[in-house]
Hints:
Strand order of the largest sheet: 1-3-2-4-5
Number of strands: 10
Low-confidence stretches: 1-34, 128-145
Number of helices: 10
Radius of gyration: 20 Å
Order of helices and strands: HEEHEHEHEEHHEHEHEHEH
Largest sheet: 5 strands, mixed
Strand content: 5-15%
Oligomer: single chain
Mean pLDDT: 81
Amino acid sequence: MNVRRLISGTAVAAATALGLGSLSACSSDSAAAAGTDKFDVVASFYPMAFLAERIGGDHVHVTSLTEPGQEPHDLEISAKQTAALQESDAVLYLKNLQPSVDDAVAQSGPRTRIDAASLTTLEKHGNEVGGHAAEHDDHENEELSGLDPHIWLDPVRYSQVAEGVGKAFEKADPGHAADYKANTAALVKQLGDLNTEFEKGLANTRTKVFVTTHAAFGYLAERYGLTEEAINGLDPESEPSAARVRELEKMTRADGVTTVFYETLVSDKTAKTIAGDAGLKTDVLDPIEGITDKSRGKDYFSVQRANLKALQTALGTK
């Protein structure tokens, strides 16, 4: 396989002052990020916060360092957020996705530090992922470095992370270990069901190639036998070269691509320009880095199912 990476207790007001986005499911009380009578978890961004809420249930108070609608890759931690990290019972983050979070955790994180990247396997991804032939990529070894952090978009890897988080919660808060274990098992089953939906839904399609602006879907593509061709690399804000644009336009004709996907938290300008030049459609494929009013769903599962539907439409289900 040819892989390549292109660089990519106070009131709610107090939590806001700390710059911590309070999540609804387990944060409806007026407790701040730390110092509550619950197991206080600081999560780096939405996929981590979702796991903490679902596994922790009523026993946890979860806050997110990344506000809804904020691009996680661009997050810069404030001094107050760093202080809140130290006061919390646990931090759940994904190392190498948000450098400022990594630095803050290393300097002053709580005793329980859960790195999601250590709970599953990571691989190198970039512009081209899956079983696609190498003829579309003339730069096989260019900038080959780093690991793709977007593990949550693969339900199987996300399930592995969930199991690890559950065990960490059990160890850190043993009084509620039985509930954490049960909640983890329920979540893992849901993720298994979602994996089955993707397997069946993408088993028979007219084409296996899809184009995205951001190389976030490498693990998903690999899991279901697809190929992601990314306009940009792992960094959603990077700009493609003129040569890459020409290469993509040639590839879309050769592989019967119908759609250029863009995402909700990043400008769709590049996608629409390339789609317009190549006579293609555009649609949303959400990397689920945050949930906003523009998201096609209210949580991880509903957005993933919207992604599945969008892929089926673009790839042409038989």
